[in-house]
Amino acid sequence: MHLLLRRAIPPALKRVAPYTKISLRGYRLPTRSTSMAEENIKYLVRVKGGPLEVAKAPKPTDLASNDVLIRLKAVAINPADTKMIDEGHRVTSYPFVPGLDGSGIIEATGDAVERIKVSDEMIGLFQSNDRSGSFQTFAIVDEQKVTKKPPSWAFEEAATLGVCYATAIAALGIGLKTPLPFIIDGPRTGLVPSYILVLGGSSALGAAVIQLLRLALPDSTVFATSSPKHHTHIVNTLGAHRAFDRSSSSLVEDVKRGTPASQGLDAIVDVVGAGTSDIFEAFNPNGPKRYAQVWTGEDKIQTPEDVDSVLFRSRDLSQLQGGDNIMLSLQTLLEDGRYKLPLPVNNVGQGFEALQKALDLMRMGVSGEKLVVTF
Q1: Are residues 140 and 132 in contact, defined by beta-carbon separation less than 8 angstroms?
Q2: Which of 4, 120, 206, 337 has its CA 20 to 30 A from that of 261?
Q3: Can you say how many angstroms the Cα of residue 107 is from the centroid of all Cα atoms in its chain?
Q4: Containing domain of residue 283, as a range?
Q5: What is the pLDDT of residues 78-112, one digit of tens each?
Q6: Beta-bridge partner residues of 75
Q7: Are residues 155 and 119 part of one domain?
């Protein structure tokens, strides 16, 4: 009887959606219901510092003319996710659905959408709220916030790209004010430093910044800091010219010796808030001394008066020339093979429990890999 029962189970039931209950009472095997397929599972936070909870809602249908509806297949975890959940950073109302990174399949499009069609596999830039957060089955975003996933990439790999890529664009275009020739209608003039140091080269953002610096400034020399175990990846895969031990007591001297006549750096991009008073001694005294620091939610790092310090955030991209085209430009970079997977992927697991585990891992600190959860 048991053998016959197992043979009678349709293969589709092995792919049944999360939280769908199957009853075998009386050996009756119901098929997957239409109403369950249309259900939206949300992972949300109801109060500042509150736990992640599971809630159910109908599949959203209220698309504006330029919107797309994405069925999430994988999400990546960012430090910003934990700061929003734990500290309420940038949260305007509760309850809210976290999640800034993800990939999935287009389920529906608005009337004015032409570039994207139903069933396309996409990478998205999401926004933490009930409508557009990626920690749910279905999310709605503007078509400018998505780009096509390379066919050879897994959803888990693609889910890691959006936030670090967009913030890296802000690092160059807003922080350093460099040219961005690979962005459609992006700036073509700006600062061209001879020697640049990326603080935090083994972070997801640092890995993206290194790649984009090589694309934007092919004649510039790019250095990066990290723990030694990540040096090979930073140089051989991402394209940095040299990597330095972030914990070295002689870091400033080591970096300066890497420049002609030990003159020093023209620019520093700090993607992890690691700037200290010592690192500014690595600047060329006769150079532009540009210091681009990412907004981490903490106090702005104070710099000497002669250092040109600029704070950058991904949400400021609307101020950047060509800022509306960054995801469309990413598609070209991916198709041409000029932008690579920034960091190895650590797939923590599937569903709610894996999401909670991944957030806890992020709270403890992550380096040299990107945490991903499959939906």
Answers
A1: yes
A2: 206
A3: 22
A4: 165-323
A5: 999 999 999 998 899 999 999 999 999 999 999 99
A6: 102, 373
A7: yes
